[in-house]
Design brief:
Elements: E1 30-32, H1 35-43, E2 47-51, H2 53-70, E3 74-79, H3 84-97, E4 103-107, H4 119-130, E5 135-139, H5 150-173, E6 177-180, H6 182-188, H7 190-196, H8 207-221
Parallel strand pairs: 2-3, 2-4, 4-5, 5-6
Antiparallel strand pairs: 1-3
Helix pairs in contact: 2-8, 3-4, 4-5, 6-7
């Protein structure tokens, strides 16, 4: 998830939703493309990615896989510990400074388990920024931090499902929203959770990383109808 288990803030009493409270993330690790890279991606009809720490870890491998599949380049704004509000803020900044490509990848939502009710409004913000003539691909959430107590793990699962439900509801409003169903992919075979995750949230390297990135690339390169 966007925060590593070593640096996320533990809630003294589980926080209002049982998963704890999100601590300060602004000083955590990040990966942000240069202006030159951003402009090159726009000029070549590539992909903008806005993500959290899973994206920080897996983004380079994902970009390599994508360019090898259909030649698309990727520009990233990935930041560990960041909730979706911060990712959409970054999207808005790039939209103003550079414009947006036809495909936008949102790899964010794991940190919203700390305050799930705020997530839906951020999805709406992102979709309005994208407009109806672009596709937004959104990787949904699985979080069950194994290092936490059983009660917190249960809250993580409940709040992940809450985030994912809001994303599914948004898809009913926005036909250009494509959900990459990572949570369902993991749940389809119970062994995937223990083999594809290293802590209950972040992907294992290389097995989980390859699985998540392949699922993402398949969605990004799938043929799509024109949007209006």
């Amino acid at each position: 998830m966007a925060v590593s288990t070593a640096t996320s803030t533990e809630a003294a009493f589980g926080g209002p939703y049982g998963s704890g409270d999100l601590g300060p993330w602004q000083a955590m690790s990040k990966a942000i493309s240069t202006e030159t890279q951003i402009k090159r991606v726009l000029a070549t009809n590539g992909v903008f990615m806005f993500g959290d720490s899973i994206a920080v870890q897996d983004g380079k491998s994902l970009a390599t896989r994508l360019i090898g599949r259909d030649g698309s380049q990727m520009a990233v704004h990935n930041w560990s510990g960041r909730p979706t509000s911060g990712a959409v803020d970054a999207m808005a900044q790039w939209a103003t400074a550079y414009g947006l490509p036809r495909r936008i990848l949102m790899a964010t939502g794991s940190n919203d388990i700390f305050d799930p009710p705020k997530f839906a409004a951020q999805v709406d913000r992102a979709m309005k920024l994208a407009g109806s003539n672009r596709y937004v691909y959104w990787i949904n959430v699985h979080a069950t931090r194994w290092s936490k107590t059983a009660a917190v793990q249960m809250a993580d699962q409940r709040n992940s499902a809450w985030v994912n439900l809001q994303l599914s509801d948004a898809q009913k409003k926005y036909p250009n929203l494509r959900i990459i169903r990572w949570a369902e992919y993991l749940a389809a075979k119970p062994s995937r959770i223990t083999s594809y995750l290293r802590d209950g949230v972040h992907t294992s390297i290389t097995l989980g990383q390859n699985a998540r990135n392949e699922l993402t690339v398949q969605s990004l390169v799938a043929p799509l109808p024109a949007v209006k």
